[in-house]
Amino acid sequence: MAASSSPHALLLQQPLRPSSSLRCKQPLVVPRRSTISCAAVRSPPVSPSVATERIFNFAAGPATLPESVILKAQAELYNYHGSGMSIMEMSHRGKEFDSVIKKAESDLRFLLAIPDDYAVLFLQGGATTQFAAVPLNLCAPGDSADFIVTGSWGDKAFKEAQKFCKANMIWSGKPQKYTKIPAFDGLEQNPDSKFLHICANETIHGVEFKNYPSPSNKDAVLVADMSSNFCSKPVDVSKFGLIYAGAQKNVGPSGVTIVIARKDLIGNAQPITPVMLDYKIHADSASLYNTPPCFAIYICALVFEDLLAQGGLAEVEKKNQKKAGILYDAIDESNGFYVCPVEKSVRSLMNVPFTLKKSDLEKKLIEEAAKEGMVQLKGHRSVGGVRASIYNAMPLAGVEKLVAFMKDFQARHP
Predict the structure, then answer these.
(1) pLDDT digits over 195-246, tens only?
(2) Known active-site residue 249
(3) 107 tagged catalytic
């Protein structure tokens, strides 16, 4: 970047970096849960320069992972816990992987306080596959289902459900360009609806539910796509009939999708339901009906362990609130140079979209940021602009560096 006399240039010249000391050297302390000990793993020494080789990745997904998780996976990759095999090579029905998937479920249940009458499934196909699986499992072909559409992903879920049930869009934020969430008391729900569907956090538009609506039909359930804010804060799972989430934003790499479903909702799939979309098939086989995405589940297990070591989701939420607050303050205090269109009360803690008053500068900002080690800031192709995804694993230092850069950029482009 060109030399600058801006007071924010110093941080850019001496950026804060995540410490390489994050590498696991002792067993992680996990409340009431066994740990995957690192002490028994013979791993090659990691160069002190590893941390400095890392950039700040603001991608919406696949997204940045905790550095400690990546280093631990690296150490265990060649010879997993003395087995003589990599985790990527071993049988999904062997004792080693059985331990991994059981611990992943156990730690996730502890993190979210998932009641015993809910099943936890590790599936494939991404959250997009769940757009079909949900109505196929919860509805008969003639049943109704209500959808609150607050962004592109909610809209895609609604359109897919129309193939398998009578899907009703009871509210859409499209006229407001997906920048708000409706008041719940004004929603006209179908009295016979089987479920009410929301996308808890819209990755593209940066709109997040801070509380949740209740179905008006006492026999209906709330269903949520939580892909982009899963495990970013505590959630009362008992308020939902079903939660689904692609892992590749907050809890792992791409390849695994997590479904949390109330057990009494499982077992009534439509006859046309493909076997791979039938929740009962997967629940009865403990997510091992066919070969699961073993490595992705293993990484999720390490991430869950890391979240527990941080003190759980209440502590994680505090960190996310601090990071998002710093970034939104920088936008709001820029005197209109940067603009976030989302209504303040529903701004996402995970995905921060914004534009520049001088739109012709957006490409330059993104290119210069990349040269400073901050990548994937380009907004989604459907909306343009800039988007910073600041998931759990994005360190505070990354947001601070981005804010310093934004202020410096503004100073250089009055």
Answers:
(1) 999 999 999 999 999 999 999 999 999 999 999 999 999 999 999 999 999 9
(2) yes
(3) no
